[in-house]
């Protein structure tokens, strides 16, 4: 392609609304254009990158025996009602765009395709002989994200590869899951990315067992905890660890103490001269279930620890049926105004004990009259602990479970693992922390959707059984941008060769020099014919401008038909290292071919 014929517009300055380097660079270099909040046009250079990523994804998927298809983006609401996700997705989480057609039928724009694929499997899979089966597609997804940001990283319209597998049993599902683990690792390695596979929370999609593939970058929205020995890595949402040991308590007898102005752990510890590891902290949450029921939650945890709200939400979701509900709509720490909606009298905030009376809750119709009390193991393990006295200005010290306080029914792990904690598999290893961008997520769904939607098969023994399912997603557009987030310098993008829009750019420093033009054109043709995807910068611009643009758009190799042509050579510059060398004109193609091959096979 000749730059003179392309829609080639680069910006000198950073666009005002872009926060992270990759977003700024893709806008500046003319790869993408913002059309609306979370909505972007993929301009020709970007589209080439996306095609390359898609091709790598496709090759790795096909190599596992998965088959490509294309499912509808317009999805009838009825399917989502069958799985029970319509209300959660359109109202509670509100992530799905929904619409009503001219026949007054409700439809959703696909944020994901479990329902569609399960409906197909229900109709078309009859026998164990057809299994296992794995279908995938590469397609635009729609999600009405609360906070679209960072360009393609969190769009409202983005490209995803999603695959769904069907199995006779869990063992077969696990096999495919392992194959996907490898395929995903291959995709990311081939795309030139530094990544980590981590244990993940399965979230609203449900099921058990999932792995996220994280591209390591400071701008990542996720925190990853891992050990040096490579044996443990998890998303902080899911991570487990051993907390530091609690100090033994300096209080041996139970008594109530006057602790004025000590409503935080820090203050009470200062006042009583004790360690936060000797305190049972009681944190209040408010959750609303999908049937509108508000439930107040009291979490007891060791004073130096924090609550992991993802784990908490999962525990509360497990309890949903106690309240006649299926899932949770919201979970938060209620502020004073929120508390006023359900308290009869004001709570002794900062002085709450694990047994705070249910009488604080007014008997509203949509409000459960009792606290649900959850206690983290770190709090259960304490002896002679300090905690609130349920009275403003007072704490108790030297308290013990089964003496002054009953251990709540729900002993759970809702503690946030953190940097520096000891690892469970080997306490000598401590957890390290890194930021990551989630580009892929593989799940073992099990029978969640097949049971809900009645997707069964006939087993070898002639029994009708629910299909086991797996689902496997890659954010193709997010992956492409992550590559930039991981690889750029002050002058612009440095694409990994495997996903660069073009391999090479031939730059003519002076288009009024007939010899420069002639050699450049000849090389341009020859390189393209040899399968080296090459641009020709034949614009009537100063050489400096052309070099800057080539650096900005990040093409791996720049070939300059400058002074060296007098000696039958051209200058070849490698974008990543800025290494420059003069190469004989008739050796350029073979040399580049080798370099590119080596770079892609890395
Ligand atoms: P996230 O946790 O980032 O919101 P998710 O867990 O909802 O993502 P999945 O449903 O697992 O995502 O989707 C599969 C993949 O699609 C993700 O791993 C991610 O790479 C990509 N993805 C998800 N949401 C977006 C988005 N809004 N914009 C771009 N890519 C996305
Ligand atoms: Mg996720």
Automatic annotation (TrEMBL):
One of its GO terms (cellular component) is cytosol. One of its GO terms (molecular function) is aminoacyl-tRNA deacylase activity. It comes from the Bacteria. The keyword Secreted does not apply. Its main location: cytoplasm. GO terms for biological process: prolyl-tRNA aminoacylation. Coiled coil: none annotated. Its EC number is 6.1.1.15. Residues 33-496 form the Aminoacyl-transfer RNA synthetases class-II family profile domain. InterPro entries: aa-tRNA-synt_IIb (IPR002314), aa-tRNA-synth_II (IPR006195), aa-tRNA-synth_II/BPL/LPL (IPR045864), Anticodon-bd (IPR004154), Anticodon-bd_dom_sf (IPR036621), Pro-tRNA-ligase_IIa (IPR002316), Pro-tRNA-synth_IIa_bac-type (IPR004500), Pro-tRNA-Synthase_IIa_type1 (IPR023717). Keywords: Aminoacyl-tRNA synthetase, ATP-binding, Cytoplasm, Ligase, Nucleotide-binding, Protein biosynthesis. Gene3D superfamilies: Anticodon-binding domain, Bira Bifunctional Protein, Domain 2. It is found in: Cytoplasm. It catalyses: tRNA(Pro) + L-proline + ATP = L-prolyl-tRNA(Pro) + AMP + diphosphate. Catalyzes the attachment of proline to tRNA(Pro) in a two-step reaction: proline is first activated by ATP to form Pro-AMP and then transferred to the acceptor end of tRNA(Pro). As ProRS can inadvertently accommodate and process non-cognate amino acids such as alanine and cysteine, to avoid such errors it has two additional distinct editing activities against alanine. One activity is designated as 'pretransfer' editing and involves the tRNA(Pro)-independent hydrolysis of activated Ala-AMP. NCBIfam families: PRK09194.1 (NF006625), proS_fam_II (TIGR00409). Homodimer. Belongs to the class-II aminoacyl-tRNA synthetase family. ProS type 1 subfamily. Consists of three domains: the N-terminal catalytic domain, the editing domain and the C-terminal anticodon-binding domain. This is Proline--tRNA ligase. It comes from Komarekiella delphini-convector SJRDD-AB1. The gene is proS.
């Amino acid at each position: 392609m000749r730059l003179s014929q392309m829609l080639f517009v680069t910006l000198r300055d950073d666009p005002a609304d872009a926060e992270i380097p990759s977003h700024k660079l893709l806008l500046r270099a003319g790869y993408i254009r913002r059309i609306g909040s979370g909505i972007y046009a993929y301009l020709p250079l970007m589209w080439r990158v996306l095609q390359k990523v898609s091709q790598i994804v496709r090759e790795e998927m096909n190599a596992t025996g998965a088959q490509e298809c294309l499912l509808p983006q317009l999805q009838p609401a009825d399917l989502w009602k069958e799985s029970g996700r319509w209300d959660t997705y359109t109202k509670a989480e509100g992530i799905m765009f929904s619409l009503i057609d001219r026949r007054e039928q409700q439809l959703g724009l696909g944020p994901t395709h479990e329902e569609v694929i399960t409906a197909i499997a229900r109709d078309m899979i009859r026998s164990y002989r057809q299994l296992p089966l794995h279908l995938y597609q590469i397609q635009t997804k729609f999600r009405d994200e609360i906070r679209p940001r960072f360009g393609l990283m969190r769009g409202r319209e983005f490209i995803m590869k999603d695959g769904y597998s069907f199995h006779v049993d869990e063992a077969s599902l696990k096999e495919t899951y392992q194959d996907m683990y490898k395929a995903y690792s291959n995709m990311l390695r081939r795309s030139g990315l530094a990544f980590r596979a981590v244990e993940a929370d399965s979230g609203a999609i449900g099921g058990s067992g999932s792995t996220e593939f994280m591209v390591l970058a400071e701008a990542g929205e996720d925190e990853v905890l891992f050990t040096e020995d490579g044996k443990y890595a998890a998303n902080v949402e899911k991570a487990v660890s051993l907390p530091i040991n609690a100090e033994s308590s300096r209080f041996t007898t139970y008594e109530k103490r006057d602790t004025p102005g000590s409503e935080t752990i820090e203050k009470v510890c200062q006042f009583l001269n004790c360690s936060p590891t000797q305190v049972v902290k009681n944190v209040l949450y408010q959750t609303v279930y999908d049937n509108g029921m508000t439930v107040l939650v009291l979490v007891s945890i060791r004073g130096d620890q924090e609550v992991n709200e993802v784990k908490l939400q999962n525990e509360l979701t497990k309890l949903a049926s106690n309240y006649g509900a299926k899932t949770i709509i919201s979970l938060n720490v209620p502020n004073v105004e929120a508390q006023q909606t359900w308290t009869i009298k004001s709570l002794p905030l900062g002085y709450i004990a694990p047994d705070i009376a249910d009488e604080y809750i007014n008997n509203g119709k949509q409000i459960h009259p009792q606290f649900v009390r959850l206690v983290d193991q770190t709090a259960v393990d304490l002896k002679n602990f300090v905690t609130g006295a349920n009275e403003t200005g007072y704490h108790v010290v030297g308290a013990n479970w089964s003496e002054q306080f009953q251990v709540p029914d729900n002993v759970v792990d809702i503690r946030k693992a953190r940097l520096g904690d000891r690892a469970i598999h080997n306490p000598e290893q401590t957890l390290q922390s890194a930021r990551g961008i989630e580009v892929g997520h593989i799940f073992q769904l099990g029978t969640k959707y097949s049971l809900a939607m009645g997707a069964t098969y006939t087993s070898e023994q002639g029994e009708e059984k629910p299909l086991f399912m797996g689902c496997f997603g890659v954010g193709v557009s997010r992956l492409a941008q992550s590559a930039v987030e991981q690889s750029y310098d002050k002058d612009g993008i440095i694409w990994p060769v495997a996903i660069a829009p073009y391999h090479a750019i031939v730059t003519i420093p002076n288009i009024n020099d007939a010899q420069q033009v002639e050699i450049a054109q000849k090389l341009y043709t020859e390189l393209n014919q040899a399968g080296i995807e090459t641009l020709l910068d034949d614009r009537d611009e100063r050489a400096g401008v052309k070099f800057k643009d080539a650096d900005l758009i990040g093409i791996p190799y720049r070939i300059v038909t400058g002074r060296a042509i007098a000696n039958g050579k051209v200058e070849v510059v490698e974008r990543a290292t800025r290494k420059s060398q003069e190469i004989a004109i008739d050796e350029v193609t073979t040399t580049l071919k080798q370099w590119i091959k080596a770079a892609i096979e890395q």
